[in-house]
Amino acid sequence: MSGFVRRFWREGSAVAGLSIVLVLVFGAVFGPLLDPASPIAIDHALLGHPLPPSLQHPFGTDLLGRVEFVRALYGARVSLTVGITAMIVAITIGTLYGAISGAAGGRIDSLMMRSVDALLAFPSFFLIITVEALTEKFALVIIVLIIGLLSWMGVARLVRGEVLSLRERDFVEAARALGASPARLVLRHLVPNALGPVVVAGTLAIGDFILLEASLSYLGLGVQVPTPSWGNMLQDALTPDARSAYWLIVTPGLLIVFALLGFSLLGEGLRVAFDRTQTQELTGAFEDTSAPAGRVPVEV
Amino acid sequence: MSSFIIRRLAGAVPLLLLVSLISYAIMGLSPGGPAAILGQQARRLSPAARAHFIALLGLDRPWYVQYFYWLKTLIFQGSLGNSYVDGRPVVQKILEKLPVTLELLTLALILTLLIAIPVGVYAATKRNSWFDIGSTAIGFVAYGIPVFWLGIVMIDVFAVHLRWLPASGIASLGRENDLLDRLRHLVLPVVTLAIVSFASWMRYQRGAMLEVLSAPFVRTARAKGLTERVVVYRHALRNALIPTVTLLGLTLPGLVGGAFFVEYIFSYPGMGYLGITSIFARDYPTVMGITMLSAVLVVLGNLLADVFYSLVDPRIRYD
C-alpha cells in the first residue's frame, strides 16, 4: 500500500488530478451553503439582460437574471452526482458480470461474453438517446440508471480478463481445495484482486459520464430545467437571445473540460500507481471497446 | 484465413439477430409506443382513419409480431421498410446520407492522423521532455472538450464574428457543384472533429511507439551502431504504426454514429443528423435501419482489424 501511495504522489499529474477533483467536490458539497442565492430564483429586474462577469457575480447572470456562479455550483452537484452514481451502477454490474463469467468458464462464459459482444455492437450513444427520447422520463434516477445500465460492458470484459488469469493462481486453487463456495470464491478471492484496473476504469468513467450527461442535457434529454446541470446551462446559453452573452457559453463548457481533466489525470495517476511494472502506457480512450459512450464523436 | 473469415461472419449472424431483437424490444416496449406518434402527427384524423393507419403499419400487433414481420421483410425482400415520416424506403434514405458522412469523417480522420501520429511519435522519442509533457497536457484538455460546445464556439468565432466560413450545411444555395464552396463548408466540422479526436490518437500512438522503443530489436539496432534517426524512423516507427493502422478498422462504426453532434450542430445532413432527427420523430424503421447498419459495421470493423493485424504481423495466425 505504501508503495502505491508513493508511486501516486510521485506522479505530478496524478496529484493535479486529485486536486481538481477535490476542488470540484468541495465546491459541489459546500459551495451552495456559502452562497445563499437560489439557483432558480428569477430576478425580474434583469430579465432578458444578462450581466457580464463582475466582482459581485464572478460568472455573470443569465437570461432570467439568475446568478450563474450559484448555478454552476448546483450544477456541479448534479453533474458529479450523475457521474459518480452512474459509475457505481456500471462498475457494480460490470464487475459482478465479468467475475461470474470468468469464474464459471466454459459454455456459460462464452454465452455471457457473446451477449456482451451483442451489446457492444450497439451504437451506445445512439442507444442511450433512443431510450431517453422514447421513455421521456428525465428524473435523475432514470438518467443515472440508463447511463449505468448501458455502459458496464467494457468493465465486464476487463474484470473477466483479470479473473481468467487469477483463477489459475495457487491461492484460488487453495481456497477451492478448502471447500470455498463459488460465491465466496468470486466475492472474497477473485473480485478483490481484480479491483486495481476497475478503480482506474471507474475514475475515468466518472468524467465520461459527466460529459455524457451534459450531451444528453444539451439535446434536452437529460436533467430538466429549472434544475441546473452543466449540460442544460449550456443548452440555455445557446438560445438565440443568449448568444451575445459569451460568458454563459464559456462557463459551463470550461467547467466540463476542467472536470474531465481532473478525472482523466486522476485515473491515469491511479493506473501508474497500480501498475508496478510501469510498462502499460496505452491509455484511456481506446482501451478495449469500453471507449466511453459520450465520446462517440471521438471514434473518428 | 478464408475459413476464419467465414466462421467469423457466420458467428455474426446470431449476434446481429440478438441486436435487432433487443432494439425492437426497446422501441416496442417503450411507453408511448409507436402508436403515440400517430397520435401526435395525425391528431386531426378521425378515429376511424387513425385506426386504419395503425392497422396498415401493423402497429396494432404486439411488438414481437411486428419484429418477425420486420425480419421477414428484411430476409426475403432485402428491405428495411419505409420511413414513417416520408414513406420512402429506409435503405434509400441511408444510402443517400452515407456518402455525405463518409466525406466528413474521412477528411476529419486524415487531418487528425496527420497531426496525431507525428506528435505522438515525436513525444515518445523525447519522453518526459517539454514537448512530451506539453502535448500530453494539451491532449488531456482536448479530450475533455464537449464536442457540441466546441462546435458552437467555432461557429460563434469563425462564422458569426469573423465571418470567414459558413456556419452550416454542405453547400451554399445554388452552388452545390462548386467544390471550393463545399470545402469551405467542411472546414469547421472537420476541424472540430479533429480537435476532439486528436488526443486519443496521439496518446495511442505515443504508447505504441514507447512500447516498440523498449523492444529488444530496437536495442539490437542501437547496439549495431545505427544512427538514432535510422533506429527510430526506419526500425521502430514501422512497427509502432501497426496498432494505429489496425485501429482504423474499429473506426468503421463511426460512420453511423460518429459525428452525431458535429452533424447536428453544423446542420450537416449526414448519418448522424438522420439518426437524431429520426429518433426525435420516432421514425422507428429508420432508427432500426441505422442501428442495424451500425451493428454490421462493428462486426466488419472488428473483423477487418483482426485480418489486417495478421497481414502486417506474420506471427499472428487465425486457423
Describe this entry's structure for a reader.
The complex is a heterodimer of chains A (300) and B (319). Chain A has helices at 2-10, 12-34, 68-104, 106-120, 124-135, 140-149, 153-166, 170-177, 182-193, 195-218, 230-237, 246-274. With 300 residues, chain A is mainly alpha-helical. Chain A has one domain: MetI-like (MetI-like fold, Orthogonal Bundle), CATH 1.10.3720.10. In chain A, helix 3 packs parallel to helix 6 (140-149). Chain A starts with a helix and ends in a 26-residue tail after the last helix. The relative contact order of chain A is 0.16. Mean pLDDT of chain A is 79; it is low at 277-300. Chain B is an all-alpha fold and 319 residues long. Chain B contains 14 helices and no strands. Chain B has helices at residues 2-29, 33-41, 47-56, 63-77, 90-125, 130-143, 147-161, 179-213, 216-223, 228-250, 254-257, 260-265, 271-280, 284-312. The longest helix of chain B is centred in the middle third of the chain and has 36 residues, at 90-125. The relative contact order of chain B is 0.14. Chains A and B meet through helix 4, helix 5, helix 10 and helix 12 of A and helix 1, helix 5, helix 6, helix 7 and helix 8 of B.
